[in-house]
């Protein structure tokens, strides 16, 4: 269910950005209209698959379970890095959204769930950043087969944001780039922890 509270007014943008935003809005609307025949149920499924209300609690729960005496007692480095990346993503996306304050497309349907106030804003796409963070981090972790499927899922999730009318094209492109950057930072953080921590077996 969408929030009934209206977002605060967006800041006035410099004229040099207005032309780019207008082009982005026109292309995004064209894509949204062109792909209206795509089943909305499929697009909503991709939306749920990239939802932060799933991706943050589940890895945290698995991480906590892996550290209990009932389990092996070894903390999974993969989960540590993934949780660190997801928390970083939550912080960065929220900060950028509140700073930029780009309104979402006017044709965005009322079936969007707004979890926090920052979700009123469109730039960047949190679903895109989260999906590409997960795909890039897991693909770079090694030992995984069918890595292409991870990026296919991330790309499909990002595309669904435009087709659903949730975001503009530049929102998802920026989100994807941010997600890959976050995956790199998470990998660096995990490497540092592995070389300095006695609790991780990397």
Topology, element by element:
Blueprint: H1 15-34, H2 40-49, H3 52-55, H4 57-66, H5 77-100, H6 126-141, H7 147-163, H8 169-196
Helix pairs in contact: 2-7, 4-5, 5-6, 5-8, 6-7, 6-8, 7-8
Description:
The chain is mainly α and 202 residues long. It has one domain. 64% of the residues lie in helices and 0% in strands. The longest helix is centred in the C-terminal third of the chain and has 28 residues, at 169-196. The termini are far apart.
Features:
PAP2/HPO, Phosphatidic acid phosphatase type 2/haloperoxidase domain-containing protein, 202 residues, transmembrane, 8 helices
Q: What series of H and E elements makes up the topology? A: HHHHHHHH
Number of helices: 8
Give a short account of the largest sheet.
none
Shape: elongated
Give the helix/strand class. Answer: mainly alpha
């Amino acid at each position: 269910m969408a929030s009934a509270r209206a977002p605060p007014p967006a800041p006035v943008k410099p004229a040099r950005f207005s032309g780019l935003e207008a082009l982005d809005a026109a292309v995004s609307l064209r894509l949204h209209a062109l792909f209206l025949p795509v089943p909305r149920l499929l697009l909503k499924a991709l939306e749920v698959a990239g939802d932060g209300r799933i991706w943050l609690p589940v890895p945290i729960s698995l991480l906590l379970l892996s550290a209990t005496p009932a389990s092996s007692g070894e903390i999974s480095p993969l989960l540590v890095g993934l949780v660190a990346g997801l928390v970083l993503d939550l912080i960065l996306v929220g900060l950028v959204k509140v700073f930029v304050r780009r309104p979402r497309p006017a044709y965005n349907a009322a079936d969007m769930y707004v979890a926090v106030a920052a979700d009123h804003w469109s730039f960047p796409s949190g679903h895109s950043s989260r999906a590409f963070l997960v795909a890039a981090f897991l693909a770079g972790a090694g030992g995984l087969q069918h890595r292409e499927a991870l990026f296919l899922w991330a790309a499909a999730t990002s595309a669904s944001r435009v087709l659903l009318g949730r975001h503009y094209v530049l929102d998802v492109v920026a989100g994807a780039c941010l997600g890959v950057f976050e995956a790199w930072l998470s990998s660096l953080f995990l490497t540092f922890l592995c070389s300095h921590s006695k609790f991780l077996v990397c």
